[in-house]
Amino acid sequence: MSDNEALFKYTLRLGDTSLILAQRLCEWTGHGPFLEEDLALTNIALDIFGRGKSMLEYAAKLEGKGRTEDDLAFFRNDREYFNALITEQPNGDYAKTIIRQALIDCFDLLFYTELAKSKDVTLSGIAQKSIKEITYHKRHSFSWVNRFGNGTEESLTRLQNGLNDIWSYTGELFEMTEVDTLLIKKGIAVDLSVLKPLWEKEINQLLVKANLVLPESLYMHSGSRNGLHSEHLSYILAEMQSIPRMHPTAKW
Amino acid sequence: MGVINFEELFEAKLAKNEMIEPKDWMPDNYRKHLIRQISQHAHSEIVGMLPEGNWITRAPSLRSKLVLLAKVQDEGGHGLYLYTAAESLGTSRDEMLDALHTGKAKYSSIFNYPTLTWADVGAVGWLVDGAAIMNQVMLQRTSYGPYARAMVRICKEESFHQRQGYELMTHLAFGTPAQKEMAQDALNRWWYPTLMMFGPPDVESPNSENAIKWRIKRETNDQLRQRFVNQSMPQIDYLGLTVPDPNLKWNEEKQGFDFSEPNWAEFKNVIKGNGPCNKERLASRNKSHNEGAWVREAAMAFAKKQNENYQAA
Hints:
Order of helices and strands of chain B: HHHHHHHHHEEHHH
Helix content of chain B: 55-70%
CATH superfamily of chain A: Ferritin, core subunit, four-helix bundle
CATH topology of chain A: Ferritin
Shape of chain B: globular
Order of helices and strands of chain A: HHHHHHHHHH
Number of strands of chain A: 0
Radius of gyration of chain B: 22 Å
Distance between the termini of chain A: 35 Å
Oligomer: heterodimer
């Protein structure tokens, strides 16, 4: 694999992960539990879409086949998508959305803080902009985890159920392939094995604070690095891609 | 010692074009009129998030998705300022939301029409927000201070939305034949409902007289409707689209367009609850609110515990 090909795949993975997460989050727009939260979650979705768009723009440029970020977003099938499995899981109730977000925000802040030091200036630039946004997202999701964990019996139960549902998708966030190995050597990619203990420590502290316990089964799902997804992704794509697929020559 | 006549002071302020502020004395019917109008306006913003929000997950490009998402978020923000402005008159968010959710309070009827294609997102931004701006520009100088100040910000954002809506229509009108057809179809469906947004003809408008006296309104329904048609026609011509009205023509004498009246029987029917989406909109608002109840309760319980810990410390 050439360096450029590796960089394309790496950037695509980051773009897809942001895009699909934001696509899930914006399902809440207009339907939040109260107006202030509706606005907050929409704002977070906007930031993450923005990051996804920047990543896909860069991926399209790296690929050099004349495709645009929209071609990449709207004309690839699920087997060609590389978003992390956790991002495509259904929103569930607000507790599940929040705990999923907290687990991802914690990962993202560690990840993008490292990526900001990348030798690739475009990735580093996107990462620097993202750090500010993710810091705010994490404050938001962590504070709600704490609130649900120390709110009512119902909110704690819902939060625990959400964690039980989503936990088995977190292991995959730290998986590395030959793409990572190659780019780490070049000082471009982030070594995820270094992030793992840091993430675990922070998440454990959060879980303790919110009266949560880890699910008994520690089995972790895997697949997205090879374009293997849960059943949910093709529905997300069917909805997201419907108009461009119906009008393939149209400009919007 | 002279007796202060509050009503005279209030009238004098109005006459001098001064703002009425929350702590000023005001007549009961002025307060009631404003609470009704501002809360309806807030509800319209919140319910208005639904027809456009319907297309967020299906926006056909990443850029249009970001624009639409930001737009719908703006509408939510407008709802928030307006609820706050209404609260300054002595009502509460809970009371207002309760009135909305039980169907007691009204919201703009336009949002009871469905958004059937992507072109509808453009038509809503361009025509519906355009009509809303025409109604709202005058509210920036309305007599009640908090409302007027909220409207300054809202109008700025609405003009963005209108431009974005028109931009979207431009892509369609100059795009593929299917896109152009989609644009024309959206214009056909949204034209008359948009004209209805200015309210019934002046001869049948019961709330107008006081509203004009109190500077809550500055122009009549018919004047605004005429101005909207005059403004829209060149935009429609530029797009190469046509208005679904065989009677529409330029009238040299009045320096404005003649046009057909909307179907007022339909207007009344939609207000009564028989529009294509009245039930769905209300059901959707109720569902989100009810499903959010445990979140609000958890937040309250947490805040209470925090407060107790703080006091115990």
